[in-house]
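Action item from last week, closing it out:
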Amino acid sequence: MSETPLVRVARFLDRTTAEGPGERSAIWVQGCSIRCAGCFNPHLFGTRGGTPTTPESLVERVVAAGTSGVTLLGGEPFEQAAGLAAVAAGVRRAGLTVMTFTGYEYAYLRSSADEHVAALLSATDLLVAGPFRQDLIDRDRPWVGSTNQEFLHLTGRLSDVTGPDRVEVTVSATGDIAVNGWADSDTLDALLAGLPAGRARPSAH
């Protein structure tokens, strides 16, 4: 049996209320070949970078965080489907929920012959699918960027997709600024006004 691939993790957030229903952990992966125009995370397009991490250690960290589950973002999670399927399955075995964002259409993923893609789908409770489109900005639904993106309830869990969009700004003891959640550029500029330039690291869905 082949060994489960490591996950190239760009960022791990133990607790957030901006990346799905309730309080969740969030994992951003490095690498995305879709490269949507206007994406909030272009620094995650390239496959170089990120920290190679075992699925088992990611599951342990999610469980230890004591949140209701994990949200998988990127980058593109389904381009690391083997490793993330193991993460999602482990989180689910612990009784927690899994939310996954993807720039691929659901029909495309369903038609894939890749067993790991099918495994990640089967271990996902709530899937947000579809590419970000700058011409279809969504200002009404939480967590999504454009109106073409679908909420797909693959299980009976995580049925509540209502609520406001949230943006979290964290400043570390060393002055590094991390942003996650969804906001347009004007809102982000207002939030970051007055903070030291060049230290911000955005990550969003």
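Closing note: The beta strands are 7-16, 24-29, 51-53, 69-73, 97-102, 126-129, 150-153, 167-171, 177-181, 200-203.
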